[in-house]
Design a protein that fits this description.
alpha+beta, 5 domains, eight-stranded antiparallel sheet, seven-stranded antiparallel sheet, elongated, SMAD_FHA_dom_sf, transmembrane, FHA domain-containing protein, transmembrane helix, 4Fe4S_Fe-S-bd
Length: about 1100
């Protein structure tokens, strides 16, 4: 209302009110005038004493004497006016006329404000500024609690001694003024008003989100908003803000309200305040035993109030309760405040539930409705008592008119408040900017708005621009947006997410691109104006921060519990505590919000129970998938080797989920959800679940899960296990279908374990390639870390190019491959990085040349700038059908740990070390150049090799650990395709290599009869075999002379090639390729154990 009134005028008003207040305080010590108004003989005065006082605690009424009216004027005339004044005229008017605010500014007027020093980062200068309360400090976060506490103490002081004792009241008021002056001297701005003054709580409750006559700076765009700090100057009022608080209510009350509306502290003080009103006025009745004591006003001039501290504080049902008044008064206020807080919290929860069942509205609007209703209830309850001793002296019709006016005004405020929303606030702010630019562009809106002028447009008609501006050029739209942008930047409205959202909405309406927006910022010279200021936090940002914090700590605790920790152990874990210490300051999380987040984790329907439900659903899918993978259709479409590997993946995942489930059941305890989950585990995975229950309970090695779970959960599990019908109950047929398996594989393909992920994704692609392609896109978008793992990346590539593509065949000699070990990976000029498999932490280089030179000089093929490495240190080269290598220039090198000074034969997989102080620096891997090898190398994907290895048996048992070992070998193994009639003897299989038949088949033959015939047939069909191998078609078998009595069983893939498994006369038998054979070959431990085979 007074937002535009000059500061010079209102300083005078504040000073006058402050002077009047001082006069009133002086009158409490010496008052020669008002006693004449209460004299029994002054019958013309409505305040004259007549008759006896009211009965107090059953005692006979005492005679009344003449008294000074200072306390009565203060408590029953001045104080009761303030709440209605706040609600009607608003926050801005009160702040600009408040005499106590004037008192806090006296040090500023006298130049006594304390300065604080800080070092300017970019210049190193020491800057002195007005001291303010630090952002995020305890007082900054708990100011409303502090003010509510001071209000509680003030009300207690009234009931005990300040109501009637004029000297006590005077000292109390002087103490408040002295506190305001002291705070004003120690901290600048309106620190007293924002952080200490108890009236600020009352002011917020009765004015937010806005008073009836409050101005709207977000609409008017005023340079000095509402009651913003300002100083007078010859050119007019100037802003004098020192940044004493964030989201300042003096600049924009409603904006500040929406920024803080969802903070628990705000709701708490609203609900407690209503209880204090009821407790304060109710105590008069509890103390005296009747209402006459209060409504007569006798309590304003009792003569013996200071002597009543230890008298009985309660008189209830005509009986005195032996509790001293010194205890009874604060106890009553505290009890009523706590009860009101509890009742308000419950009713808020009920209202939220009703709104959720009806039309859903944002959380901010729900809270606003609750707070506005509380304020409406508070002010009307207050005016049932406040000022009533003086109102009852007025004629009855006038008193009724005042009562009706209070109800009407408070009702108008209430309906205005509940219809305010954050969206409407933002919409009005955007409309104000648009309408201002429409005026500058001289846009004629009358033809679009039914003849109304531009001044007739309402703020909620924000989207009128979309109807008006199409008639104007694009240049005019850009000019309008540029002016709005400049205006918002100059008013510092672009440093918060809410301000940036306003501009984003405006660009969408005006068709301004992001590039044009950036260009306009450059033209305006505001390079950093659009950067978010961390200190400017909107309500939406605040809510998002709290929600993110709750989600992060819930996820962290659930993760620790699923690993076997109890809730307390998970909470006390060093990693979790470090995360808390990092997150709370960065997200500005208060103690109450932190406690609420932790409570929600363990509460019903909280994070732990939600996780139990999620794992329960996973177990249902896993159970269905384990049945579906045994179906004939799955075996036909996936192949036996892949099904074998997939079963192990499903089993491993099942065990991991069951362990996590047991740990969660221990943490949550017995609830309906945990009982259901325990029953599901026992019913679907009986044997596995029983085995897991006998494992140690996390880190408590002496305790099994069976001992750690609650007794009621154990009973539920035992009940399921003992029920044969429930135990044997099968899943419905639909649950074991291929579509169910596809859904499970999609879920498993997102597992964090790369090996499981790769196998599941590969199987998914064989069953439903479109679903696999969808998974690939999801993984690239959401799990880039997993997508970059080598095996997962290979499967993704296989899926993208189609699962039907045949193996790539390699002709001619294979190149030499160097693997550089450790962090000292070198730089090469001639190599092509990444052209061969790359082990983790290693760098793989492929060379097509006949020689490789290694040293610290940059001219080498492999550049290793390490201490002790000579400029030209080592040379390896091809010599006939072998590779030799050795140190150069008298240097020494180490080959597989043994020093060499001359050339030596190097075998594939040998490790080269150049200096004794360094770890092994490189591994040479190569295939000797040859054009008469009896096989052709083919590139099969790693999952196919892995499945073949795993399904072949032998050293690969069907368990998760063996699967991991098979994965490591499959990565470095090569695949050789042999044509039909190729003969394998014990002598042709190298001792340091292992062989697995991946595809194709072999026959066992008697060595003494068949070998010559096979050799002759192979020679005749050599050309045919060579031509067939060059295509994707597999060579067909030919008729051969065979003696049925000597022929043995066919060896089908997958199988190990081991002559020791062929019986006692194994040395007399050979293996012959029936049609074709793809062999997976890898080197056993020793020498080339860690080699990576060239493909």
């Amino acid at each position: 209302m007074f937002a535009r009134t000059p500061e010079k005028s209102l300083v005078t008003v504040r000073a006058a009110l402050f002077a009047a207040w001082i006069v009133l305080i002086v009158s409490l010590f010496w008052d020669p005038m008002t006693p004449t108004l209460t004299d029994p003989s002054a019958t013309g005065s409505p305040f004259h004493v007549h008759g006896n006082g009211p009965s107090i605690q059953g005692h006979a009424p005492a005679a009344q004497n003449t008294y000074a009216m200072g306390a009565r004027i203060w408590w029953t005339m001045i104080v009761p006016i303030i709440p209605l004044f706040l609600m009607v005229f608003g926050h801005e008017t009160w702040r600009r006329v408040c005499p106590l605010s004037f008192a806090s500014q006296i040090p500023r007027y006298l130049g006594w404000v304390r300065k604080a020093s800080f070092v300017q980062r970019h210049s190193g200068k020491v800057i002195k500024t007005v001291a303010v309360i630090g952002r995020g400090k305890w007082l900054d976060r708990n100011a409303l609690y502090v003010q509510m506490g001071l209000l509680y103490l003030g009300l207690t002081a009234r009931l005990l001694f300040a109501n009637a004792d004029r000297h006590a009241l005077a000292f109390l008021l002087l103490l408040v003024i002295a506190a305001a002056v002291t705070v004003g001297a120690l901290w600048g701005g309106r620190t007293w008003c924002h952080y200490v003054c108890p009236i600020n709580v009352v002011q917020k409750i009765y004015t937010e989100p806005r008073g009836l006559l409050e101005s709207a700076p977000h609409v008017s765009g005023a340079r000095l908003g509402q009651s913003a700090c300002r100083i007078s100057s010859p050119s007019g009022d100037q802003l004098a803000c020192v940044g004493c608080t964030t989201s300042c209510s003096d600049i924009d009350l409603e904006g500040s309200y929406w920024d803080t509306v969802k903070r628990p502290i705000k709701r708490h003080v609203y609900y407690i305040f209503y209880g204090l009103i009821c407790g304060f006025y109710g105590y008069y009745y509890l103390y005296a035993g009747n209402w006459d004591y209060y409504f007569s006003g006798y309590w304003t001039h009792e003569t013996n109030q200071l002597s009543q501290f230890l008298d009985s504080g309660f008189f209830i049902a005509h009986r005195s309760i032996p509790i001293p008044k010194l205890i009874a008064a604060p106890l009553t206020l505290a009890t009523c405040g706590a009860s009101s807080l509890a009742l308000g919290t419950v009713l808020e929860g009920l209202y939220r539930g009703v709104r959720h069942r009806m039309r859903r509205i944002p959380e901010a609007e729900i809270v606003n409705h609750c707070l506005s209703f509380t304020a409406f209830l508070s002010i009307n309850t207050f005016y049932l008592f406040g000022g009533r001793p003086s109102l009852l002296m007025l004629p009855a019709p006038i008193a009724r008119i005042i009562d009706v006016a209070i109800v009407i005004l408070s009702s108008l405020w209430f309906f205005t408040a509940i219809h305010r929303t954050p969206f409407k606030y933002r919409q009005e702010a955007l409309a104000a900017s648009l309408l201002g630019q429409l005026k500058k562009l001289k846009v004629d809106v009358s033809r679009y708005m039914d003849g109304r002028s531009i001044d007739d447009l309402q703020p909620d008609e924000v989207y009128v621009l979309s109807k008006v501006l199409p008639a104007y050029t694009r240049e005019q739209k850009v000019i309008a947006y540029k002016r709005i942008l400049d205006e918002m930047i100059s008013q510092q409205k672009t440093t918060s997410a809410a301000g940036l959202q306003v501009l984003h909405d405006l660009r969408g309406e005006m068709g301004i691109s992001t590039e044009e927006h950036a260009r306009l910022i450059d033209e305006l010279g505001h390079d950093h104006a659009m950067e978010l200021d961390p200190s400017v936090v909107s309500a939406r940002e605040r809510a998002q921060s709290v929600a993110n914090y709750a989600r992060l700590i819930a996820s962290a605790i659930c993760k620790r519990i699923e690993l076997g920790d109890t809730f307390d152990t998970a909470f006390a874990h060093a990693e979790f505590q470090d995360m808390i210490r990092m997150l709370r300051p960065s997200l500005q999380i208060e103690d109450e919000e932190h406690k609420a987040a932790l409570t929600h984790v363990r509460a019903a329907s909280g994070a732990l129970e939600m996780r139990v439900t999620a794992l329960n659903e996973q177990l249902m899918i896993l159970a269905s998938a384990k049945l579906a993978v045994f179906s004939n259709e799955a075996i036909v479409r996936l192949s036996n080797p892949l099904v074998s590997a997939l079963r192990v993946v499903l089993s491993a995942r099942t065990v991991a989920v069951l362990r996590a489930m047991l740990s969660l059941l221990r943490a949550v305890g017995p609830t309906d959800i945990t009982h259901g989950a325990a029953s599901t585990c026992a019913r679907l995975f009986t044997d596995t679940f029983v085995d897991v229950m006998m494992e140690p309970a996390g880190e408590q090695l002496a305790l099994t899960w069976k001992d750690a779970l609650d007794a009621s959960l154990i009973n539920a599990i035992v009940g399921v296990l003992s029920d044969d019908e429930t135990h044997a109950e099968p899943l419905p047929a639909a649950a074991t279908s291929i579509p169910t398996l596809v859904r499970c594989l999609h879920s498993l393909a997102n597992d964090g374990e790369p090996l499981h992920c790769a196998i599941a994704a590969f199987a998914l692609a064989k069953l439903d390639r479109n679903e696999a392609l969808n998974w690939r896109q999801e993984l690239l978008a959401e799990r880039s870390d997993l997508a970059q793992q080598w095996l997962v990346a290979e499967v993704m590539e296989t899926i993208s190019r189609g699962m039907q593509a045949g193996p790539e065949q390699v002709a001619g000699r294979a190149p030499i491959v160097i693997t550089v070990q450790g962090p000292q990976a070198g730089i090469t000029r001639a190599a092509q990085p990444g052209s061969a498999p790359q082990p983790r932490h290693d760098t793989c280089y492929t060379f097509d040349s006949l020689s490789i030179r290694i040293g610290s000089d940059r001219d080498n093929d492999l550049y290793l700038p390490e201490v002790g490495v000579a400029p030209q240190h080592f040379l390896a080269h091809i010599q006939g059908a072998r590779v030799v290598g050795g140190p150069l220039g008298g240097e020494t090198a180490w080959l597989n740990g043994l020093p060499i000074e001359q050339e030596a034969v190097i075998r594939s997989g040998d490790v080269i070390t150049l200096t004794p102080d360094l770890p092994p620096v490189c591994t040479l891997i190569f295939v000797v150049p040859a054009y008469d090898l009896p096989y052709t190398e083919v590139h099969l994907n790693t999952v196919t090799k892995l499945s073949a290895l795993f399904a072949s048996g032998g050293q690969f048992r069907r368990n998760a650990r063996s699967l991991e070992a098979a994965g490591d070998i499959a990565r470095r193994a090569t695949v050789r395709r042999y044509p039909r009639n190729t003969v394998f003897t014990p002598e042709t299989l190298q001792a340091n290599e292992s062989y697995i038949l991946a595809t194709g088949s072999l026959r066992q033959i008697a060595a003494h009869r068949e070998y010559a015939a096979i050799e002759e047939a192979s020679h005749d069909e050599a050309s045919h075999s060579a031509g067939t191998l060059a295509s994707d078609n597999k060579p067909a078998p030919t008729e051969m002379r065979d003696d049925a009595s000597d022929a043995q069983d066919i060896v089908s893939a997958p199988a190990r090639m081991d002559f020791e498994d062929m019986g006692d006369d194994a040395m007399k038998r050979y293996l012959v390729v029936s049609a074709y054979a793809d062999l997976v070959v890898w080197q056993e431990a020793g020498g080339g154990q860690d080699a990576v085979a060239a493909k």
